[in-house]
Design brief:
sialyltransferase cstii, chain A; 10 helices; 7 strands
Length: about 240
């Protein structure tokens, strides 16, 4: 049971409530993730509402390159970035450097310290990772230093799967979540979300020419949904339109 608890927040929480077994610090950390998820998610959503007109979701598209938008992005009060969002300090002129929430895919395991990230909020994208993620090592490190880790509500992910007929990308999941929190697309800014066609830029990721778009996502339908949100007021900082 202890071995399972090392990889499962719900089991960790169950064992802590039982109070019959001495638990390691790692298990207690995972238990805290499970027990405080509702409170932390509510706190995160309050932050989104408090900064409703000054939020920027920054994707990793090569559309960020050579536009010198770093200062414009960093003017926002609450900024969300993804995975290995900026590996080169020279890119900060185009991408900015400020970050308030770090969104990471469940399989992205590069330590935040190695990326130079010091942030209070981490968002794990995807469906409910409580039951699907096997490697919690970096989450434990984040929790141990006082960071808060939240998951988007499972219903947001399910809503997007129905629309897209495919698993949503982390970027689209976060944008949808924010729109559902605030009740509107108007006022939300995004950058680095240009889904590319064969005739557009060859490079997909702004900091890695080797990084390719995931094939499991329905990029065509994601682009259509982004366009619909743009018509409702979603502000694309790095483009006049999709």
């Amino acid at each position: 049971m202890l071995a399972y608890a090392e990889k499962s927040p719900p089991i960790s929480s169950f064992l802590e409530d039982e109070k019959t077994i001495k638990l390691s610090d790692d298990i207690r950390l995972l238990s805290s993730f499970s027990k405080q998820q509702k409170e932390w998610r509510n706190e995160f959503e309050c932050l989104i509402n408090e900064n409703i007109d000054s939020i920027c979701v920054v994707g990793n598209s090569a559309s960020l390159l050579d536009k010198s938008m770093g200062k414009l992005v960093d003017k926002h009060a609450f900024i969300l970035r993804f995975n290995n969002y900026c590996s080169d300090v020279n890119l900060q002129e185009h991408c900015g450097k400020n970050i308030d929430a770090w969104v990471k895919s469940p399989d992205f395991n590069e330590p935040d310290k190695q990326l130079g990230i010091d942030v209070g909020w981490t968002v794990i994208s995807g469906p409910d990772v409580n039951y699907t993620m096997s490697d919690w090592s970096n989450v434990k490190l984040t929790l141990a230093k006082g960071g808060k880790v939240v998951m988007p509500p499972l219903q947001v992910w399910r809503d997007l799967v129905k629309i897209l007929k495919a698993p949503p990308s982390a970027g689209l999941l976060v944008i949808m979540w924010i729109i559902q929190i605030t009740g509107k697309a108007d006022g939300l800014s995004v950058a680095g979300f240009q889904t590319l066609s064969e005739n557009e830029q060859e490079q997909y990721h702004h900091s890695s020419s080797a990084h390719k778009a995931g094939e499991r996502h329905n990029w065509k339908e994601e682009k259509k949904l982004l366009k619909a949100w743009q018509n409702e007021g979603l502000n694309f900082l790095d483009s006049e339109g999709l």
